[in-house]
Amino acid sequence: MQRFFVLAILILLGWLTYRLSPILSPFLIAGILAYLGNPLVTRLQRHRIGRTWGTTLVFFLVILILAGIIMALLPVIRHQSLLFIEYLQKYVTLLQTQIIPQLSARIGIPLDSQSITHYATANAQKLAGWLGRSLQVALSSGSGLISSVLSVILVPVLGFYLLRDWPRLIARIAAFIPPHYLPLSQRLAGDADAMLMAFLRGQLLVMLALGTSYAIGLSIVGLQTAILVGLVAGLLSFVPYLGVVSGIAMASLAMYVQTGAFLPILWVLIVFGIGQILESMVFTPYLVGDRIGLHPVAVIFAVLAGGELFGFVGLLLALPVTAVLIALLRHAHGWYLQSPYYLGKGS
């Protein structure tokens, strides 16, 4: 009876997440921020700083750092974004007037530039549709735009209260667990917490390191949109190979339009090749470590499945939930290896 009750609760939570996914995004983002900031506030409490004052201090420092970064990068990002849009327009012109006619002459097959451009545009829109679905919904109406603005405002407010009251929330959740299951639950929660914290912190650091490496490398080879491409590639690197593929495509297009030759694209490939070597040999081992054990195939499947089932909320939840499930599955695997069924002692 108890198992059916727990199963019913899990099904109800899944159904509520699916139904409420359009409004859950700010709460989830705020929860992730509070989860990441909780160890720092707890450390401040050990130095006799109250929870409220510690939370205020952490939020003030984070806002100060983010404001400084935005003020420093915004003019550069704006300039390079406009430059990249100009490159796209020039590339479409080159595609129609030079590249397609030359390709048609070499292969001996007449190609209609308009139909090819239309086909490429249509497929590109399909490929990017699931990424931009949340933004399209938010901008489809005035109320959606207001909701998006309110969500941005709500994130720091919700994050502050969640971070301040985090120990109380954990204590209330623990109060619902039966006492005879509490030691096991605490052990599982501790392992899942260690893996999830290591994954989130490590992944954020890897994204930052990759984006910085790409931006520096592309700047050295002379790409005028290096910071923009590095930022996009770094942000998308939470999905294996998505960041590097997107970065190579953007950088190659910009480099070709900028120089008018294909040979400089080789330098772009070298930069991203060095970035991948650094990620596999330096960034991931030292910043994430071997405690996570998330295979790239599992990560890709988790992100795609989360986005398909729950939209943007699913994208936020996919990797943290997968990391926690991996921790729980390791315990289940250990229990299975010690079970009578596996050892052949049961019927």
List the helices and strands and how they pair.
Elements: H1 2-19, H2 21-46, H3 51-107, H4 113-129, H5 133-139, H6 142-164, H7 166-175, H8 182-220, H9 226-235, H10 242-259, H11 265-288, H12 296-310, H13 312-337, H14 340-343
Write structural notes for this entry:
This protein is mainly α and 347 residues long. Helices cover 85% and strands 0% of the residues. The protein is built from 14 helices and no strands. The protein has helices spanning 2-19, 21-46, 51-107, 113-129, 133-139, 142-164, 166-175, 182-220, 226-235, 242-259, 265-288, 296-310, 312-337, 340-343. Helix 2 packs across helix 3, helix 10 runs antiparallel to helix 11 (265-288) and helix 12 (296-310) crosses helix 13. The relative contact order is 0.09.
Protein traits:
85% helix, 14 helices, globular
Overall number of strands: 0
Share of residues in helices: over 70%
Task: Assign an overall shape.
Answer: globular
Order of helices and strands: HHHHHHHHHHHHHH
Describe what is shown at a glance.
With 347 residues, the chain is an all-alpha fold.
